[in-house]
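Note to self: keep these together.
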Amino acid sequence: MAIAIFDFDGTIISRDSLPDFLIRTCGWKAFLLRLPWIALLKGAALTGFLSTHRAKELVISSFLRGMRTDEFRQACLEYASRIPAFVYPAALDEIRRHQEKGDKIAIISASVPDWIRPWAQTIGIRLVEGTELEVKGQMLTGRFSTPNCKGSEKVRRLRRLYPDFASETLYVYGDSSGDKELLALANVPYYKPFNNK
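Structure:
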């Protein structure tokens, strides 16, 4: 038996689900109005003026702060129903191959897992880790309740899910710099494995 860890955005699906979710949930007008703010925050993160954690948190906050959890849950379910249209067929084939072998499978993503989990469950993936949103009084605060799930944080999540992972063959599938630390631990690393298939 082995462990297979999949990134989500750009690895299983052909796009970045965060802006796509925000556009679908809040509308193009809301997204375009915030575009200068998003560009400013991205620039601040690239230059090191802000951490990527804080920049991403501020972007999400500008859209979702104050949203009721039941509304958010419904938006996530609606978005998850769109995910099959974006999935790389080769990624789905690879997931099925691991499932047929009886391997342990998890998705570890920098995205918010709430819109990944409903889709993942439909294909038999139970474990999804990501950047969790803070909730208080049944409302989103606009802050994260966990660190941004990229880089070394992905490794920490792997260790939490599978403390004895080093004793098994580890497959890792990723497509960005945020996956480098995880890929470096893999017995079988796949970088951008499905993009051209």
